[in-house]
Design goal:
single chain, 8 helices, 24% strand, alpha/beta, 224 residues, 44% helix, globular, 14 strands
Length: 224
């Protein structure tokens, strides 16, 4: 899962990254208003942690830009401004959640998990799709009640496909999901093919229903 941290306090941003990395998330950063707008315009994120007071402009204007571009990224405002009016304004513009500084990183992680679960998988921590069962908290997978061991990237890919069932996901989007803004610097997408090939082999060996389809010349689609 990929998270954009829009925060100009370097120490706080670093602490957030260290904690969330331990929770299995990958973070990218923007420190200013213009960096944030560039990032949200060029890439897609599972969740954006958005400070309101940024060098060069307001985080609320970044939020307005996210909505203007019809982006589906989840947004949690993280701000030292904790008045009721500030919270209402942020939520009315379109933030999914609002957490006032200072906050415990464990609470922030719990809110991110809740947002992602709600937006992509309904309200349950256990996803059951025919013979597949995924525990989102334990990050485990069983197929026909037999455990299947996936790497972190394979598990992230599986969630990406299942969270976008019946939609074609392009090779570029997959590369971006796996490598973030480094994707544009890569010569090819061989690493994407390798991760998908390995994930699919493990699922096939376990007896899943071959739901992951290759869309020739475009990308992949989870059909179910």
């Amino acid at each position: 899962m990929k998270i954009l941290v829009v925060e100009d306090e370097k120490e706080l941003a670093s602490n957030i990254e260290a904690y969330l990395h331990g929770q299995g998330y990958r973070c990218e950063f923007a420190e200013t208003f213009s960096q944030a707008v560039d990032k949200i315009s060029a890439f897609q994120y599972d969740c954006i942690l958005l400070d309101i007071m940024l060098p060069g402009g307001s985080g609320l204007k970044v939020l307005e830009e996210i909505k203007k571009q019809n982006k589906q990224d989840g947004v949690i405002i993280i701000s030292a401004k904790d008045s009721l009016d500030d919270k209402i304004k942020g939520l009315e513009i379109g933030a999914d959640d609002y957490i006032a500084k200072p906050f415990h990183l464990s609470e922030l992680s719990a809110r991110i998990h809740s947002l992602l679960r709600r937006k992509q998988f309904g309200s349950s921590n256990i996803l059951t799709l025919n013979e597949l069962q995924i525990n989102l908290l334990a990050k485990t997978l069983t197929v026909n009640n037999n455990p299947v061991s996936l790497t972190k990237k394979e598990f992230d890919l599986l969630l990406l496909f299942i969270g976008n069932k019946n939609r074609i996901i392009s090779k570029n989007a997959l590369a971006e999901h796996l490598s973030g803004d480094m994707a544009d610097m890569l010569d090819n997408h061989d690493f994407v093919y390798a991760h998908i090939k390995n994930m699919k082999r493990k699922l096939t060996d376990a007896g899943y229903g071959n739901y992951l389809k290759t869309v020739y010349g475009t990308g992949y689609k989870w059909e179910q």
